[in-house]
Amino acid sequence: MPSVDWKNLPENEEDINFDDIYEKHKVVSDSDFDHIVVVDGAPIVDEAKEEKLVAVLTKLFTKGAGEIKENGFWMPMTTNEEGKKTSLGYLFIEFKSAESAHAAVKNLDGHKLSKTVTLSVNKFTDVEKYTDMNEQYVEPEIEPYTPKEHLKSYLMDPQARDQFVMYKGDDVSIFWNRKTESPEHVYSRTNWTETYVQWSPKGSYLATFHTQGIALWGGPSWNKIVRFVHPGVKLIDFSPNERYLVTWSNEPISLARLPETGHPYSDYDEGNQVVVWDIKTGDLLRSFPLVQTSEEQKTVRWPMFKYFARVVPGQQLSVYEAPSMGLVGKKSIKSPGIVDFEWSPAKSGASDVKVPNKEDILAYWTPEIGNQPARVVMMSIPSKEILATKNLFNVSECKLYWQNLGQFLAVKVDRYTKTKKSTFANIEIFRVNQKNIPVETIEMKDPMIAFAWEPYGTRFACITTNDPNFGTAPANGQAAVTLKTDVQFFYLDDSKKANAGFKLMMSIPKKTSNYLFWSPRGHHIVLATLRSSSVSDLEFYDIDFEPLSSDKKNKKVGSTIQLLATQEHYGVSDVEWDPTGRYVVTAASMWRQSSADHGFCIWDFKGQLLFKQNIENFKQLLWRPRPPSLLSQEEKKKIKKNLRQYSKQFEEEDLAMGDANAAKLRAERRKAVEEWYAWRKATERQLEEERKAMGKELQTTDEGKSEVVEEWVEEVIEEHEEIVG
To answer: Among positive and negative, which fits the CA dihedral 123, 127, 132, 133?
Structure first.
């Protein structure tokens, strides 16, 4: 202790420094209250059953949360009126880590130990916090109501136009599509995003990406609606109803790198990479780690979540209920080797979809493990009932493709040849809308590089190749080789014949197409050669083309497939249909092609070029999605029946719009000519005044000798010939 200077004593007691005393007598505690949880609602037992209850609860909390500290389980006992010791219905558990304590609250709060016993789990620090609350009720201040902008106001456009977002340079802009004319600008902002933009499924929100997270924008003023803090976010996925959002970052969440306030994370979220959010409230619902089965696995399957299900590769499938984010049935679906899964897009109990199951359906596949074959499994949720399975052999890879009505599931199966030096493809089709879900196999001789169902239909298209260059990686610095491909269309023969099923409709050989783009309304498809350095072909097909002179009785299968147009867009990297199926955008993005003329083209469904614009530093163009139609099937049929009547009205509007545009153009030209003559006369007067001031007036040499010559020109306006017999 330092010596006391009696000549310089502090004037007040508050000025005395006790730091040395505090340091000397500091009490060091090896206990952290963040590691402790309080469990309430436990069964009340006597001494005879105490040990058994402690064993059951220890096993439950060790499995559901984490390792418990030695002697970290304390269940208080008391003596009752009969002199026997009984428990009090609550206990304290101290875990080895705070993460385990958080997991105990997350996973076991509300856990039903039996039909009459439900556990309540809280952190010890939370109990202290709530006991210190003021017991006197203080009425909260209610903020004044401020009406929000209508997020779907764009659907009220009188001309029923569609919007799209364009990202070029540092600017992100919203435009109205105007067919053959330059798009009408709506809104722009510089540095609106740092990487790219993405629409929500129904077009209500525009998501922008930032270093610290995601922001959602919308409404006529394009104000910020909500933001989600997730540093380094790279990928997002919306739920189909736009209620939930999933974000993924390759950087694990680190609380040390985040500010002390302004973020929703806790110790439980430390190290996780996937986060589930509630869009309406902005709340964090739950976070998950990114599980990798091996060091070699570096890729991320996305979308990772569909209706809040996640796959732990090679181990299990976990399905969660929203918004509680609890496991369905309190446990995951064990499936050794599981690789991937897909949810059926059909809604539960949808009246217009003939699916013989009222629950949601998902399908997943597992590879061959030892003597066990590869398997595709179809399961209903939440009952977890197995609806159908299919064993597969010599499988190298599977890909699941649901028809958008959920009536069919196509599984592309890549199989090894007998020598295992090459692969070929089969298609296994599950008919979900039939009893016992039969499975049909379509044999393909070659590898398949693309597959796509026709929306709202029973047809599909696929692209196969027997090019020897398939599967070979390009040399360093060289572009990938453009493969020779075959395009095939299949249809469903639903007759009662013995060989009924999916059959080949038409095969189109010797193509270079590597992508398929169906119209969202079906019937039309674009075959495209994308991201090739030598070929940029676009082929527009009508699958239901009906020539005027066609004989419907003797019509051959595949005769309705008609090539409407063959076009080319140099450097094309992306193709996207608008929500109505009337227009197609092809884009050459600087992200995909460095040597192309960056920009976009707008085509109609027949392949006619409507508008083209080259844009420097063009990056991205996305049509704004539309929500599902509110019209019933009967109303849609009525509109189709009276389509000619409506088409006349639309043609008149287009003609009036064309006349208005032509009149506007003539008025602009007339105004420009008048301005030119006005400027010329003013300049001539000014020049004449300057000459007069200088005494250099121009002398006229006409002196009345000029002569005016009139010339008459006759023109036949109309000629009519009538024979009088």
So the answer is: positive
- E strands present in 139-273: 163-168, 171-176, 184-190, 197-199, 206-210, 213-218, 223-229, 233-238, 244-249
pLDDT of residue 516: 96
Model pLDDT, residue 549: 57
Distance, CA of 121 to CA of 40 (rounded, Å): 6
Q: Which domains does the chain carry?
A: 33-131 (3.30.70.330), 340-445 (no CATH), 452-468+482-617 (2.130.10.10)
Peptide bond just before 628 cis, omega within 30 deg: no
Query: What is the three-state SS of 309-327?
Result: EEEECCCEEEEEECCCCEE
Q: Provide the b/e sequence for 435-468 (b: ≥16 CB within 10 Å).
A: eebebeebebebbbbbbbbbbebbbbbbbbbebe
The two structure tokens encoding residue 490: 């299949």
Cβ contact 650:179 at 8 Å: no
As averages over each run of 10 residues, the pLDDT of the chain (725 residues) reads 57 64 57 83 90 92 89 89 87 88 87 89 82 81 87 91 96 94 94 96 96 95 95 92 92 87 85 92 88 46 59 82 78 87 71 56 90 91 90 91 93 86 90 91 92 94 91 70 92 83 93 95 94 89 79 73 94 94 95 84 96 94 94 88 80 70 74 88 89 74 60 67 62
Res 16: pLDDT: 66
Residue 554 CA: distances (Å) to CA of 103, 142, 502, 640, 710: 69, 74, 21, 26, 70
Looking at residue 188, what is its pLDDT?
A: 96
| Pairwise CA distance, residues 332 & 337, whole Å | 14
pLDDT for the residue numbered 438: 92
Q: What φ, ψ does residue 125 adopt, rounded to 5°?
A: -65, -30
Question: pTM higher than 0.85 for the full model?
Answer: no
pLDDT at 8: 63
> 3-state DSSP call for residue 276?
strand
Torsion of CA 720, 721, 724, 725, to 10 degrees: -140
Please identify which residue in the block is written with the tokens 């890729």: 299
* pLDDT on residue 476: 67
Nearest CA to 533 out of 501, 573, 503, 571 is that of 571
- Check: CB of residue 618 under 8 Å from CB of residue 588: yes
Judge contact between 369 and 337, C-beta under 8 A: yes
Give the Cα separation of 342 and 524 in Å (integer).
26
d(CA 684, CA 52): 112
Residue 201, C-beta contacts closer than 8 angstroms, at least 6 positions apart: 238, 240, 242, 625
Amino acid, res. 141: E
Question: Quick check: 174 and 181 in contact, CB under 8 A?
Answer: no
Structure tokens at 367: 């590879």
How many other CB atoms sit within 10 Å of the CB of residue 189? 14
Name the residue type at position 221: S
Residue 349: predicted pLDDT: 38
Contact indicator for 251, 273 with CB cutoff of 8 Å: yes
